[in-house]
Amino acid sequence: MESAAEALAEVSGSVAGINDMNTEVAEATEEQGVVAEEVNRNITSIGNMAEQTVVSAASAREASKALENETAKLNAMVWQFGD
């Protein structure tokens, strides 16, 4: 009987070890899910920032063109007074 009891104790210990490993795997999987969500949020944020940069660059380009046009008008006026 001791042999059977020892075998059962060994099996019980192995099952407990497997349960512990399963718990660790589940916790690691949950942590990976949290990290993946954070990475996804960061990528979305980077995409939004890139879009804002494009809009800002277009706005700056338009402002630069407007400034160039105003400069040309002022130069024309200065030349009129110079003549």
Largest sheet, if any?
none
Give the strand tally: 0
How many structural domains?
1
Name the structural class: mainly alpha
Shape: rod-shaped
Low-confidence stretches: none
Written account of the structure:
- The chain is mainly α.
- Helices cover 98% and strands 0% of the residues.
- The longest helix has 81 residues, at 2-82.
- The radius of gyration is 36 Å and the shape is rod-shaped.
What is this entry, summarized?
With 83 residues, the chain is mainly α. Helix content is 98%, strand content 0%. It has one domain.
List keywords for this structure.
single chain, 0% strand, 83 residues, mainly alpha
Topology diagram in text:
Layout: H1 2-82
